[in-house]
């Protein structure tokens, strides 16, 4: 009896020893794997399909750039809804794929990121949208480009190319960044053609191809001959414009292939900037938790010009881009009125391009806009 | 006993055949089926985390499968689980908003009941149309799916829309206190328990109660049911109502355990996947528990398959579709296997 108990204890001790050594090895394993140059998994979540000629595609472009970084392996998942489901997908990427950096690319993922991030402090969550606040987890990042700057450049091209002096802007929602983009488009156009006007249509939906096509048709019927669409995927806007024989500008990503004749240029995100965060996380370096910027910080891009744009206009557009990059051109500068006649900026007043407080509060359309914000003020 | 063994063997054979067929599809796409199936296992069952995801998927599937299985016992082919789930979800939200201030447990209970009632009415409508107007219940329930989704889209984009949420079209949210948490230690919400309980309850009802037996008689031979004087109309409505209540409850659970508000996120195909689960289970509520987990696992592994093999998002749905076809085709095998019917097949 005593003998067998002794045996049992001895067996227990040897088992425990073996288990401890296994556990030690297991604990060492990630370090060993890292030392052997196992690539760091980076996950991308999209709310729709990757090839959507819009928001998701702009992130796919970034995913491709990031996948080329040394020691990084990218994997992607489409059609992840902005519900608790995306929490599951993030956790699945972390637990089953070993992801160390996640790019949940849809705006609506943010509240779920805030729930998951504290549980996984060794994982970096990079969100497309400048929502990060001081109290939010340090392993989360919000980044977003000032798309009004490339819209300004599109506006220059539109102002120069429009024969009627009437351009059109189709926006999804009455939100500050849509107003900023719209204002940029108008200010750009009026910088080269002070008489230009812009019809503004807010569809109310991020994704409503029927309304978007109707909007283009009705704008063209009213004499508008350049349009830009700010919705999830401006594919329908650009294709309808091409069919109606008018010019169009792109949004989100390079859409020049959709309109071989009428495409002028387009406003693109440079989400590839996210590579900096991946490198910083890889090397345990520093990174900002909130990053907003325009051409100066390389956060936005301009699409290639379409064949319709003559050399002189291209030069003019590129000059303005350089001016943004050099901080010599302020998008909002006085004198500036909104389209209801209220003074926004007095002569000589100048809003810094990185003045987030001003830009996040934009709830007006500048002079030259025909249409309403739809906001009660 | 022999019949049950036959069913088990044929269903297993059908599922195996489906996996074999899907393997051909994978090979044609240049993928190694064994690797893909290994990842499917990993994503659906391989780790505790995967199992959690699988069980979370399985919970609503059990209830939407009941929406097919219970009316099927009465001889009705109802495929309206998706619509009943949506109707249940919307009514759950309405009830939740209206009941703000009620103690939390009571509120949750009432919200769930509201969802179940809405689902019962939704599928009950198809039963009523069938009984009084002779409208085909399959077509009616299929079309009711579209009506429910359209109604929800209308409501959430206008009358009950939460305008404070600007980036997403969603309804008002139910009070936070009505939301149910995960089962401690399991990481799966209480809907799983409700789903299993509902399956057990339906099993008991159909097997041991008088109305349950009457429903089976109706399903087995409507003329006989009529001859013995069973209230056919009421039984049909009962079967439809019970099935609809289950799917409506699934919608309410999605609201109180996951979303908190109605939106297009409710329409993710649980109703249609429930049809597959019901057919795999041969309309047996007990078998539904098992097959809901199997189908839930396939769904849960979809993301991982997509990530590892760059397969399209719909790949796991293709697999589910192939399984469904194989199960339907396998019906031809019943009565033809000599093992189970030595005398039936002439030598």
**How many domains is the backbone of chain A divided into?**
2
Mean pLDDT across the residues of chain A is 89
- Helix/strand-derived category of chain A reads alpha/beta
- Largest sheet, spatial ordering of strands of chain A: 12-10-9-8-6-7-15
Number of helices of chain B: 14
Count of β-strands of chain B: 2
Which spans of chain B have pLDDT < 50 for at least 5 consecutive residues?
none
**Quaternary assembly:** heterodimer
Q: Could you give the distance between the termini of chain A?
A: 88 Å
Number of helices of chain A: 11
Which term fits the overall shape of chain B? Answer: globular
Lateral arrangement of strands in the main beta sheet of chain B: 1-2
- Bin the helical content of chain A: 25-40%
Give Rg of chain A in angstroms: 25 Å
Largest sheet of chain B: 2 strands, antiparallel
CATH superfamily of the largest domain in chain A, please?
Answer: Response regulator
State the largest interface. Answer: A-B, 27 and 22 residues
Low-pLDDT regions of chain A: 1-6, 19-36
Described by the principal axes of the CA atoms, the overall outline of chain A is globular
Span between termini of chain B: 25 Å
> What order do the helices and strands of chain A follow?
HEHEHEHEEHEHEHEHEEHEEHEEHE
